[in-house]
Design a protein that fits this description.
- Helix content is about 40%, strand content about 25%.
- It folds into 3 domains: about 120 residues, PAS domain (Beta-Lactamase, 2-Layer Sandwich); about 80 residues; about 150 residues, Heat Shock Protein 90, CATH 3.30.565.
- By secondary structure, it is of the alpha+beta class.
Length: about 375
């Protein structure tokens, strides 16, 4: 009898500890049993998903409308069936983004999944920061490109004109040399400013970009978070197969390359099928190759080179500026790499980016 009372006491203590944990945690969590009955939830979950104490004991089907994502039931059943962890980004009714982790609750004695614990980690600020960073990167690269190409050319022409004017006879033009000197001085100042701006990336400037050893999976995760809304809206399926996962490159530039290629695959998807995007990496000779393929609307052969032109837009039925692919090619070319494209209308497109990798492991090849 005493042994029985001792076990009951232990169970009460364990239950109290569990109750205290659920009551005091700051993370939204749900516990759903194998019969899809909502057994417990934390106060943050109550607030976030407008749950009430009376919802305990109800089927999750009865409160699924509290969640924005309709696939949550299928996700729960998948984890119960397979016993494997499931992670995905979801958006709630108040437009906040969460990393949803569905963990199997395994009864060790019976070695079976008896339910799931669902944890929600708020990633709204991270997604917002990544989107803002991507916007700043594009504006920064476009500014440098405009200064470097669109302004330098007319300035060079103006400089040549001044040299020609210097050879004009000065008779009857007493003030001409003084005016010419002022123009030339101003021109040199403008050139100096442009050189300072465009060469900042190679100088000891505060915003100097530094190549580092990067994990492609981490870069892809950042991109997926940045494009979470587009992925959710389009139902895009993104898969990857990395034979080589590390490359030495500038972080924000590699993220910008991958972001623009995946974003394009989503934007120019076919209306007749679910968009499927595959990202692969491998080594080809000493090049790190990043390929992004899709089953989208494709591109006609005569337009394959045009898509890299700045402000070039082949379709007007989707939002865009015509800058993304131009920036991708600029980033890749300036790094000493190259980009190729294969496409067939209504079949899909494959972009292959070849980067000169300083961290070459020649044992891993395509």
């Amino acid at each position: 009898m005493q042994n029985k009372n001792s076990k009951i006491s232990e169970l009460i203590d364990l239950n109290d500890e569990l109750e205290n944990y659920f009551r005091n945690t700051i993370i939204p969590q749900l516990f759903v049993d194998a019969n899809l009955i909502l057994r417990k939830f934390t106060p943050p979950a109550m607030k976030q998903f407008k749950l009430h104490h009376s919802d305990i004991g109800k089927s999750i089907l009865d409160v699924k409308d509290n969640f924005r994502f309709p696939s949550i039931i299928d996700n729960i059943e998948q984890v119960i069936s397979t016993g494997e962890l499931l992670e995905k980004e979801v958006q709630t009714v108040d437009m906040r983004w969460f990393q949803m982790n569905i963990l199997p609750y395994i009864v060790m004695k019976e070695n079976k999944t008896n339910g799931v614990i669902i944890t929600f980690i708020d990633i709204t600020s991270r997604i917002r920061d990544l989107k803002e960073q991507e916007k700043l990167i594009m504006e920064h690269e476009l500014l440098l490109d405009t200064i470097s190409h669109d302004i330098k050319t007319p300035l060079t022409s103006l400089g040549l004109t001044i040299e020609m004017l210097k050879k004009v006879p000065e008779k009857g033009m007493e003030k001409f040399p003084v005016l010419l000197e002022k123009i030339e001085t101003g021109l040199l100042k403008i050139k100096g400013i442009i050189i300072d701006l465009t060469d900042a990336r190679q100088s000891e400037h505060h915003f100097k970009t530094v190549a580092e050893l990067l994990d492609i999976e981490q870069i892809l995760e950042d991109v997926r978070l940045t494009l979470a809304a587009q992925i959710l809206e389009s139902n895009a399926v993104i898969s990857w197969a990395f034979k080589h996962s590390e490359v030495v490159f500038v972080r924000r530039k590699l993220r910008s390359v991958l972001y623009n290629l995946i974003n394009n695959s989503i934007k120019y998807r076919s209306t007749s099928r679910v968009p499927e995007i595959m990202i692969k990496t491998y080594m080809e000779n000493d090049d790190f190759v990043l390929s992004v393929s899709d089953n989208g609307r494709g591109i006609a052969q005569e337009n394959l080179e045009k898509i890299f032109n700045k402000y070039e837009r082949l379709s007007t039925d989707v939002e865009g500026t015509g800058v993304g692919l131009h920036l991708v090619k600029e980033i890749v070319n300036l790094s000493g790499g190259k980009i190729s494209i294969e496409s067939e209308p209504d079949k899909g497109t494959i972009f292959r980016v070849y980067l000169k990798n300083q961290n070459v492991d020649k044992s891993t090849t395509a």
